[in-house]
Amino acid sequence: MHSHSGQFCPGHAVDQLEDIVKQAISKGFTTMGLTEHMPRYSREDLYPEEWDNPEESLAALVPRHEAYLVEAQRLQKAYASQIHILIGFEGEWIRSEYGDLITSLASHPCIDYFMGSIHHVNGHPIDFDGVFYRRAIESAGGSEEKLYERYYDQQFELLQALKPRVVGHFDLCRLLSEKPDRDVREWKGVWERIVRNLKFTAGYGGWLECNTSGLRKMLAEPYPCRIIAEEWLKMGGKFTFSDDSHGIGHLGTNYLRGLEYLESLGLTDVWVLQRNPAQDTDGTTKAALSDKKVAISDIKEVVAKW
């Protein structure tokens, strides 16, 4: 339910999107959500690899997104007999102005859903490198506790404005933390914000993803960590499952560990979205979506063959 390609996220991921879909099929995936990053719209939001020619880099982003939608629809049709492809994107709540931009992108007839994700605090990336992370800390008041509070406040702004069906890597803020396995309940203001955000998400029927990229990036647990996952489940929250892949080599990475993590929480199923009908619409109407339950044991059977 969360994936990227080098074709449409150059400098950020690798490999052609079609090759990634073919690899997913060969590994036994039956559903795959394509969620390339949405365009950014300001020079200040460019990453270092885009700084050599910022005007050209910025001008390329919207056409690249449009090309992605064309290719995603082609792949959806071409491989319909082999894999159920959902078309989405990863929303970027860099600042509140991005809310209208996400809404506009999500209105496209081919878009089934979008990931509601936070990668920035006060405009500074928090998952790129230590330099950017420290800038984010300073902008939030000079401590990681303040950074976490600001992260969850901005996440709440996103949740309220957009009600994303899937919330991406709920606790990404811990990735570059000096103590990523910290029990955040010791920070009263942070924990109150986490519980608030979880309650709001559960209230409108949103899902969290169990995202195994945290394990790939050497965290001890996937996103979200155990104490957040346990709180979410107390509220009756649902999980979908993803690797947040950035190329062929990431497909299914740490799936077994992620599934065992979910089982340790008492879960037997995860959820995916299903397009109804699975075949094409007329190109001007969105496909209807339904929720589909998938047994963790069934996924483990496939993973065991890799």
Total helical elements: 10
Number of strands: 10
CATH architecture call of the domain at 90-303? Alpha-Beta Barrel
Q: Write down the secondary-structure element order.
A: HEHEHEEEHHEHEHHEHEEH
Name the beta content range: 15-25%
Q: Kindly provide the radius of gyration, computed on alpha-carbon positions and rounded to a whole number of angstroms.
A: 18 Å
Q: Report the major sheet.
A: 6 strands, parallel
GO molecular function: histidinol-phosphatase activity
InterPro entries: Histidinol_P_phosphatase_HisJ, PHP_dom, Pol/histidinol_Pase-like
Catalytic activity: L-histidinol phosphate + H2O = L-histidinol + phosphate
Domain PHP: 1-213
Mind explaining what this structure looks like?
Keywords: Amino-acid biosynthesis, Histidine biosynthesis, Hydrolase. One of its GO terms (molecular function) is histidinol-phosphatase activity. Pathway: Amino-acid biosynthesis; L-histidine biosynthesis; L-histidine from 5-phospho-alpha-D-ribose 1-diphosphate: step 8/9. It is an enzyme of class 3 (hydrolase). There is one protein chain. The chain has 306 residues and is α/β, with parallel strands linked by helices. It has a domain at 90-303: Metal-dependent hydrolases (TIM Barrel). Helix content is 40%, strand content 17%. The protein is built from ten helices and ten strands. The strands form three sheets. The chain has a six-stranded parallel beta sheet. Strands 4-5 form a two-stranded antiparallel sheet. It has a two-stranded antiparallel ribbon with strand order 9-10. Helix 2 (54-78) links the parallel strand 1 and strand 2. The two termini are 20 Å apart. The mean pLDDT is 96.
